[in-house]
Amino acid sequence: MRLIPSISALVLAGVVFSPLALPNTAKADSASAVAGKMQALPDGAAVYKHICQSCHMADGKGAEGAGAHFPALAGNPKLKAADYPAYVVLNGYGGMPWFAGLLNDKQVADVVNYIRSHFGNSYTDALKPEDITDMRPHLSVEEE
Q1: What is the reported pTM?
Q2: 101/38 Cα distance (integer angstroms)
């Protein structure tokens, strides 16, 4: 009779401590929860459509509802200084995640230049990838 509880304990221990039963480590505190960099995107429009459009909408007018507020990029005076949207893309702000670990310098410059020259915006002082390099937050290996 003592044999049955011992076997049950061993079976239970094998299930609990099996490598298959251990969950994988997830990184969901940023937009770069998926390992690796973003796929190659040819220009700012492609970056916008792939990443930004789902919250800021195809027309850049943003969205609001169900407790969420996604600000309009269309006609937004905060875009006047190119550093501001670049900082937000790199570091996040409010409910927006940071994309520093996901986008390279060219992709950040491209998408910032895109939103600053579309949706009724007409700012012509374009950012270069080198400008983004200086703004990029310094991340440890664990944070990337």
Answers
A1: 0.70
A2: 9
Strand residues in the chain grouped as ranges (E): 63-65, 68-70
CA distances from 99 to 29, 66, 83, 105, 127 (A): 11, 24, 15, 11, 17
Q: Which of 75, 98, 73 is nearest to 87 (CA)?
A: 98
Tokens 């940071």 map to which residue? 98
Owner of token pair 């390992």: 35
Nearest-Å Rg of the Cα atoms of the chain is 22
Structure tokens at 109: 């410059």
- Alpha helices in 32-91, H assignment, sequence order: 44-47, 53-56, 83-91
The DSSP secondary-structure symbol of 65 reads E
Residue 81: both structure tokens together: 């200084």
The answer to whether the CB of 9 falls within 8 A of the CB of 17 is: no
For the stretch 64-120, pLDDT in tens is: 888 888 999 999 999 999 999 999 999 999 889 999 989 999 999 999 999 999 999
Residue 7 β-bridge partners: none
The region that residue 92 occupies, defined by phi over 0 for left and psi between -120 and 50 for alpha, beta otherwise, is left
